[in-house]
Amino acid sequence: MADVRATLIPAGENSYRLEAYLGRGGYEAARKTLLEKKPQEVMEEVKKANLRGRGGAGFPAGFKWAFVPQADDRPKYLCVNADEGEPGTFKDRAILTRDPHLLLEGIILACYAVGIHTAFVYVRGEYEAIAMRLEAAIAEAGQKGFLGGNIFGSGFDLEVLVHRGAGSYICGEETALLESLEGKRGWPRLKPPFPASVGLFRGPTVINNVETIANIPLIFRHGAEWFIAQGLPRDGGKRLFGVSGAVRKPGLYELPMGTPLRKIIYDWAGGPAEGQAIKAVIPGGLSAPFLTPEEIDVLMDYESLAHARSMLGSAGIIVIGDRTPIIDILKIVARFYAHESCGQCTPCRIGTTWISKIADRIGAGGGGPGDLDLIRHLAEGMKGKTLCPMGDAAAFPVLSIIEKFGRELEETISR
Amino acid sequence: MKFSLSAESARRVDELVRRYPKKAAALLPVLHIVQREKGFVSPEAEEWVAATLGVPPIQVREVLSFYTLLRRQPAGKYVIQVCRNISCFLAGSEDIVNYLETKLAVQAGETTADGKFTLVTVECLGNCDHAPCLMVNDDDYGPVSRSAIDGILKGLI
């Protein structure tokens, strides 16, 4: 069996404290790197490690950083996305709770690579206790000279600020997050320009997920080759797989990228809950298209899941048992996106609301023969027709439910 | 202007505003401070925030009405947020909501007559391995059962 020791989420009640982190060799990679390596070398090492974004889109982190124009006088920013709102996802909570200094060390390395002197961590509003812990960690690191001016005596300056959201799923979308940080509603921006050229306060901006940044110190402790060996050549490192729903052992499992979905559900999460068989599995947070029990031999990495016409997304695996009517799930999916649509683009605002109303009507016994076609039509009308990926995120799961569980829905309607 | 904050909150606002490259960026954190002290953001508070940060009052209203954690009306001493998204639903969140509604004699979205509890249903709290989960003010609980809820409520005085 592969090495399964947790590296992003250490055990122990006090694992979050600075002394504990220093005891694990914390901040050594950043110290050594800032004193001995050039920023360009840092960026190259991250590119070599094939670290892909852990937020959902899977864009290679090193290449994202390279989009930031270097010959530019505007202040540059890093925004760490800790808005964790994708239903079924609870990994960033674990990193922030148990290893906030790992995130800070990653922030130092990322900012050094790109030449950034101000970083924001955008923490979802509900994570108040977590935000306070992170602020305490920032203060501790500052006292040691790991943050602030002239870090490790390298001459590099960095300030890290915690910014709390206030309850909004869409602010996890990178440009909505920027708007929110600027003190506005979370309305996604039209791209281009991309944040790397025009981002926060119109400056060049990198936006990375918490788990992405938390992996950076591991790359510099052990090297890019080691990192790739932890996962797949095209998709380096391990991944925090969250498993929830109808399983015996819901939890967070840190496993190599490319671990089979079936193995995660049965060997780690203990298999389906007592007395139930698997009806459906959502492999990567609520936005990912549903898989049937016959489809769970897929490998959990970006390419394999795309090939299976789903997506790895946030790697939040949700298992639905056969006791749950699929109409109940459709209602929840539809209601969620209707609730969270920011209202800026008509297809998403109207589409999500209509789908939710129709799903509720079917659930209440008032379904009609044309309902599934109408839902499909509305979902198709959102796909690719909105400013941000939310239109797709709302359409994909709905379309997959109708495609794969259409017969059950027809039965519900005709009952 | 009728609105004012305690000296401690005012000091925190000053400190925050200085840390941001642009004053307006402190809008969400300042609204959090106001709400923490006052329990909600009143129209007078909105005007004060707008003036303090140099943003149009409409921007404050837009933000206030956009984010679900910000309130324009007072809430109970304890705000109970029950998650009803997929993982919690699969773990029985409907029963948790029903039980709380019966026990507190309110519907979701309402505050008890004595002003002690506000019950709301919310989308994913990011605590899915502890489903069904809820929050009481800033504290997480899960997995919760009917008897666990009895215990939690008893501890809230």
Describe the structure in your own words:
The complex is a heterodimer of chains A (415) and B (157). In chain A, the strands form two sheets. In chain A, strands 3-4-2-1-5 form a five-stranded mixed β-sheet, sandwiched between helices. Chain A has a four-stranded mixed β-sheet with strand order 7-6-9-8, covered by helices on one side. With 415 residues, chain A is an alpha/beta fold. Chain A contains 16 helices and nine strands. Chain A has three domains: 18-229, NADH-ubiquinone oxidoreductase 51kDa subunit (Rossmann fold, 3-Layer(aba) Sandwich); 238-321, Ubiquitin-like (UB roll); 326-414, NADH-ubiquinone oxidoreductase 51kDa subunit, iron-sulphur binding domain (de novo design (two linked rop proteins)), CATH 1.20.1440. The relative contact order of chain A is 0.12. Chain B has a four-stranded mixed β-sheet with strand order 2-1-3-4, covered by helices on one side. Chain B folds into two domains: 7-66, Arc Repressor Mutant, subunit A (Orthogonal Bundle); 78-154, Glutaredoxin, CATH 3.40.30. Chain B contains seven helices and four strands, in the order ααααβααβββα.
Q: Note the beta-strand portion of chain B.
A: 5-15%
Query: How large is the radius of gyration of chain A?
Result: 22 Å
Residue ranges of chain A: pLDDT <50 for 5 or more in a row?
A: 1-6
Low-confidence stretches of chain B: none
Span between termini of chain A: 49 Å
Q: In whole angstroms, how far apart are the ends of chain B?
A: 35 Å
Shape of chain A: globular
Q: Which structural class should the secondary elements of chain A be placed in?
A: alpha/beta
CATH architecture of the largest domain in chain B: 3-Layer(aba) Sandwich
CATH class group of the largest domain in chain A: Alpha Beta
Q: Which superfamily, in CATH terms, is the homologous superfamily of the largest domain in chain B?
A: Glutaredoxin
Q: Which sheet architecture does the biggest sheet of chain B show?
A: 4 strands, mixed
